[in-house]
Every structure is written in C-alpha cells, then in structure tokens.
DNA sequence: TCTTAAATTGGAAGCGCTTCCATATTGACT
DNA sequence: AGTCAATATGGAAGCGCTTCCAATTTAAGA
C-alpha cells in the first residue's frame, strides 16, 4: 500500500521508467538491470497499483460481464469458465446481474462504463437500443453469449437453441412420441427461450403434429414445471410427452408426476433443456439438451483476449454445439418404454 | 470516453474543482452553480472516469469477494444479497473463486490487493497465515461469512453451524429416530462442514447414542449422497436416519433411495443442511436447516458500508440465525411416520 | 458602516503509473 | 578506426480526477 515505483527505482538506482519496463516485461531491459530491479522489488515487497496503471495505460485489466442472476447454474458455469481464462491473463471480471431485464442491463452497462473495462460480456442478444449505442460508441470488444444471431454487436459465442429444440422433437417423434406439449417461461422473456419455442413449433409443423395450442406458459421454476404437469393431465385429449424449455421446469414436472403417481415415461414422458447436474441423478434420469457451458465461457474469454491483443477478426461467431442426451424420462429406441437405455444420437458439431 | 471534467468546467465557466464538487455532492456549491454545471454535464454527456477518481481519492468503490465457486447456490445467493446492497451505494463487487483452497484464496487476495479494493468479503474463517497478514496489513474492512468465530479478522456474519446440527439431532431424536449416521465431505474441508460434524457428535454424546463410528465421508455431490446410502444400507446394524451435511448430498441420497425402493422416512429417514429450493420440491420434501442467505449477504454489505463510513465498531459479529425445517423426509411429531406434516420448531433468534 | 466568520470558488499539486523522447551505450560491419 | 543501427536508460509529461489552500464574495453581527 505504501511502497511505489519511485522507491524501487531509487533503491535500484535506475529510473522509474526502467522499473515500469521490468514490471511489464518489456524487451528493452538488460538482464543485469532486470535482475537488480527484481531484487529491489522483492526486498521492498513492492506491489503494483493497478488503479494507477489503469489510468496511465488506459487499460484496466477488467472485463464487465452481465448475466441474469449470479445463482443460476447455467450462467455461473459460463462465468467460471470465462473467469478461469481471463485470470490466467491477469484480467479480472466485474459481474453484474440484471434479472432478465434489459432496462436493468442498460443501467449496469452505464455504471460499468464509468469503470473503464477493457471489454464486455453480455448474456443474450436482446438489448435496449441505448445499450447497443453505448457499447458501440465505447468501441470496446464485446462477446454476446446467446443464440448465434446474425446481427451481433461484435462477437457471439453460443449454440443454436432453435435447432436443438427442433432436433429434440424429431428424435422423440422417431422414438414414438406423438402428442406433445411444450412448457415455456411466462415471465422474463429472452431470446434463447424464444428460440427454443420456435424450434419446437417448427418441428411440430414439419411433422404435421398440430401442437400449436399446446404451448403452456409457467414460471421457470420447480413449481412452474409442477403446475404444467397439473395442466397437462387435465387436457381433454391427453399428451404423451411434455417438452420443458429448461431442466428446472422438467425437474419440477418429474417431482409432480412422482407425487401424482404418474409413471414416466409410460404415462407421460418428459424432456428438458440444459443438462444440469441433477438431470443424471433424478429418477427417471432426464432426457435433455447438453451444452458445455464451461467451454462456452472459455471460448468467450479466448475471443475477448484475441480482441484485446488487437486481432480484429470482425464479427466472430463461435458455435460450441450441443448434444441430445437421451435418458429414462422418454422412450428410447427399441425398448418399448421399459427402462430404456441411452442411445447415441446425432450432434451438431463444432464449426 | 472522451469528455472530461476540464471540458465541463470550461463550458460552465467554472473551475475543475467546482465540477468535482458538484459530482460528489459537496455541500459547498451554490444552487445556481450546481445547476449550471449539471446542465453542462448533460449537454456534453459527461461520464466520470472512476479509475482516475480511484487514484486521486484513494477509494475505488470496489469490494473484493472470494467464494469457493460462483455456481454454488449458497454462495451465489449471498453474493446477490451483498451485491444488491453495495450497488445501491455505487459500489461494485470483484468476485474471485478459490475452489475451497485457502492457498488459492491467498493468491486471489494478493491479486485483488493490487486493484486497491475498499474492503474484503471472505468465505469462512480458515485462511493461510499469509492471507491474514496481508489483509490485516492492508487495514481494509473485512467481513467473513462463516461460523461466528471468536477470532475474526474484523467482522463476521453468519450463524452457528455447530448449534444447528446439534439441535437437528436433538429434534429428530425427540421424533423417535434412534440410530443415525452422518455424511460429511471427503474433500475440500472447511470450517462450516467441520462445525456441523462437531455439533452432530456433541448431540450424539449428549443423548448417549454412540454414533462415533458412523461418520461417512463422501464427495459433496448428488453422487456422494447416493454412495452414502449404499454404504448405510449395508451396515450390519441398520440405521434409521441419515444426516447429510448438505442438501446436495441429501438430494442424492433421496434419489438413491428411490432407485433402491427404500421407503422414506419409514425405512430410512434423511435430513440435510442449507434448505436449497429443491428441498421443498423433492419427494419426500427434505427436512433441513434453513438460513436466509440473501439476508446474510445484505448484512455483510451493511457492515462493510458502515466500516467504510468510518463507524469502527471493532469486531462486529452478526448472527443471522437459522431455522429447522421439518418436512416429510423424517418422522414428524404425532404422525407415526405417515405423511407427516410440518411442525413449528425452535429457532435461534437474531441477536 | 465596519468587522469577522462563513460560504464559494479557482487553481495547483498531487495520486502512482506508462510512455515517449532524447541521450548514451553497445556491437556489428566496413 | 569509423559508421550506423540496435539496444538501454533516465526523466518528463501526462492519464482524469480529488483536495487543499488561498482568494474572493456574501452574510451576519456589532
């Protein structure tokens, strides 16, 4: 807190600039000088002041990230991957949570800009016009973690939610499921959920299933999933598959079926989206869409690091792909429904 | 990014100091001047540079927080509460994750100190000597979120894990459970888990239950909880209650019992610790210890804000208390075990 | 009306660093 | 030896802000 570059410089009998060069690993320092300076740094227990560095160098070594909520597994995992990559490069994360509100996101962007981050990480590709304006005006590198939108601010990392939902419906249709409904979120709309719904509806149309009126909207929570089951069981014409837009709702649905003595997948099959850790533990294990979210975070980090290093590949788009995980909560191929085993299915590969 | 205080000052025809005083709400500015300056700020779209302010004022408006992992619900909830309180006061959080390693924690503290935070939030009260030395030398306010240790660095916010475990055992003993075992974590030891075990063993001794050899160690995960059930069912002398040190393990245990057709709570009762959202949804609903973690975060934030405001009540200790939640995974009073209903139980009140 | 204290204000001096420029030194070729 | 480029180095000039001090203005008493 007290010893500064000037003190080190004085002790080492060199100029402040030289100490700075040693600290920043500049090539233009003789080995002897470097060693001498490093010894003095150790002797004095010098600790750089990154605030001062940030001001002088116009580079803070901080990256702003905005996610819906800190406690949501999906986003937390991405943050962990992102943070790991950045940490290795001496960069810290500044995390804000906007609770799925793009107005709140705008506020956070405004606040964060005052702290002069070197880059931005945003969740989703839906923002207020002002958010987009602010960020574009700042000229900072940005990565949006989302669908692979065609109109990104800068770069996007993500996977195709639409296609994942679409493929899931096709797969389960091949497995014998015929009449299905989807549960999507009633509040906090966002682009990823919207795309999942679109993909589902597209598949439904392709298969001629006529399920347009079977879109349930409940809160994205265990409770919401449970309520959807209640609704589903009261339908005049029963369904045999409930497609949940998130694993959280799917888990809630499974619990509700257990409570009501509904057998899965025979009486009602259930699938989810996200492949949370619980999806493999629950009974029956949950058929769902799996994405490597740590990897998403790491990729996002890599993109930002490249951007910061000046490699300006405009509009980079990174597809981390997804995998359909077929488990016991839906019929699997060739088992007639009893204790189905996992069957390998097609995957959208990395581009 | 470009307009600075000097520009505002020039336009408003005042000194830079005056603009600064307006920005920081100093009392010594005439209303007319203030208004004029504010108009110019708006006109130019001036946005303060908090990096420069941090350097000049020796106050960054950032607080460092270190938690085991971003994605663990317990800690994420605390962060959310903390972040909310700080945000209202224009303070940002700098979050690092140490993965339960105090060596890694030390590294993060070292890194964070270079960014000159105004305060620290630490998880737990177990740190390396060097961590403690560094933080004490920095003279910054600290709050540890943990047990209510008697030897805090500065302030502590938390609840009594020992007492919670102890009371849980006493309660379940009154409900008729006699032979029990505890599952605790095999890796990543930490003070809170240790205290829970201690409390459990203390109660066991008080009740003369002789359960010292029934301490299982498994990974703190769904899988670990499941394995513990496997172990428990193979005991020569069967147990009737499995006390899990975390809800995650308890949920894993419940799933495993479902898979094995073990009826709960009749054949095996299960209780947990943390009261995660899933505890109320799962079948049977999980008896557990509940703590308001958002509130813990908010309290931690309040303490830090007070400290920053200069109110130096040394060694503040804040007990947020806990509540035993009795649910269907254990016998409840007066029901003989069948579909027990929730019974109000004693709570350790806020101090 | 004259003092004196309080309220305002301008402006300079940093905060601790990076970076540019000028200078000094070295070494490789002629 | 002499030349020129490459390599090292010191040091000053900021980066954009806060804050202190001195100066000025205003208000309040006497």
From TrEMBL, chains A, B:
Q: What are the residue boundaries of the HTH lacI-type domain, all occurrences included?
A: 3-57
This protein's UniProt keywords:
DNA-binding, Transcription, Transcription regulation
Q: InterPro entries from the xrefs?
A: HTH_LacI, LacI/GalR-like_sensor, Lambda_DNA-bd_dom_sf, Peripla_BP_I
Q: State the Pfam families in the record.
A: LacI, Peripla_BP_3
Q: Which SUPFAM superfamilies match?
A: lambda repressor-like DNA-binding domains (SSF47413), Periplasmic binding protein-like I (SSF53822)
User: Origin, by domain of life?
Assistant: Bacteria
What PROSITE patterns does this protein's entry cite? Answer: HTH_LACI_1, HTH_LACI_2
UniProt GO MF annotations: DNA-binding transcription factor activity; transcription cis-regulatory region binding
Q: What is this protein called?
A: Transcriptional regulator, LacI family
């Amino acid at each position: 807190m007290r010893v500064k570059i000037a003190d080190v410089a004085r002790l080492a009998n060199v100029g402040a600039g030289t100490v700075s060069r040693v600290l920043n690993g500049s090539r233009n320092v003789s080995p002897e000088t470097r060693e001498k300076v490093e010894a003095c740094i150790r002797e004095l227990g010098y600790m750089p002041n990154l605030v001062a560095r940030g001001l002088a160098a116009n580079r803070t070594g901080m990256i702003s990230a905005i996610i819906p909520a800190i406690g949501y597994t999906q986003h937390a995992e991405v943050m962990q991957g992102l943070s790991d990559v950045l940490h290795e490069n001496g960069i810290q994360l500044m995390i804000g949570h906007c609770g799925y509100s793009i107005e709140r996101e705008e506020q956070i962007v405004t606040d964060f800009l005052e702290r002069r981050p070197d880059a931005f990480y945003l969740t989703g590709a839906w923002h207020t016009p002002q958010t987009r304006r602010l960020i574009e005006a700042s000229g900072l590198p940005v990565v949006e973690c989302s669908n692979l939108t065609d109109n990104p601010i800068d770069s996007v990392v993500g996977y195709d939610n639409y296609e994942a939902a679409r493929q899931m419906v096709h797969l389960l249709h091949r497995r014998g499921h015929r009449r299905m409904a989807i549960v999507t979120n009633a509040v906090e709309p966002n682009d990823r959920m919207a795309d999942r719904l679109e993909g589902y509806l597209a598949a439904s149309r392709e298969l001629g299933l006529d399920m347009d009126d079977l879109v349930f909207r409940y809160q994205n929570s265990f409770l919401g999933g449970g309520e959807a089951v209640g609704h589903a069981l009261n339908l005049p014409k029963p369904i045999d598959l409930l497609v949940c837009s998130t694993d959280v709702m799917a888990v809630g649905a499974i619990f509700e079926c257990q409570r009501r003595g509904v057998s899965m997948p025979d009486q009602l099959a259930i699938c989810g989206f996200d492949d949370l850790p619980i999806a493999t533990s629950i009974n029956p294990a949950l058929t769902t869409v799996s994405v490597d979210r740590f990897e998403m975070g790491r990729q996002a980090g890599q993109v930002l690091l490249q951007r910061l290093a000046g490699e300006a590949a405009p509009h980079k788009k990174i597809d981390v792909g997804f995998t359909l995980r077929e488990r016991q909560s839906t019929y699997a191929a060739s088992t007639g429904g009893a204790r189905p085993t996992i069957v390998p299915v097609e995957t959208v590969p990395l581009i």
